[in-house]
């Protein structure tokens, strides 16, 4: 869908601001920080600190045993955030600092609106000879919405309740590669600049919300992250991209949150509209309902 809207862009945003009072939390540039003495020790506080929706399940660090099956009334688990400790902390490099997800009731279309979503399907082990009891083992399938199809990008058979730590590195790699490829494709012909031009040929994502009138150019979005004591801000441009407070422009909300957070985030769940508090994911679901999908 190629659009050409004659809408003036909003003025430059102020820098991201702190939320609440200063606190002895990790440095915002330190992406290796994990649960420690000053970190939350319950799931609800962890969600608030990380800026995750209230129905998000924290799979790692584990507060509760992870699910071993998708409930009967859901299709899959959407990966909302994953963070793997890097080489900056050699003693813990490769450890899972954060892994979180949300249940998805129905299978959405793998179209432009959902491109890049990563989900997990948890089922009974297909191999009846697996040594663990069936209730204590699961088959895990990882699917990526890409080029109009839900494509399998990972599969683990007969894993125990430690499966989140097993599959999280693959999830981080897939989300990172897809995000990099998406942003590279968008900017291959129109490189970013201090005053980024409109990408008149941008497709999918927020551009579809604009066309449906569910968002408008210039609307402000926020992402509260109590863990770092900051509130990230962004505005919707008339070409369907997001411009951050520092002027960086991203074609996809997931690319924006990943750039801001240092880990891999599903930006549809993270960003909320200032005017009513609804997430981009809520608006995306409304558009899908309007289409009867």
Automatic annotation (TrEMBL):
Region of interest (Disordered), ranges: 1-41
Domain RAMA: 189-291
Biased composition, class Basic and acidic residues, residue ranges: 1-11
Protein name, entry field: RAMA domain-containing protein
The organism of origin for this protein: Kibdelosporangium persicum
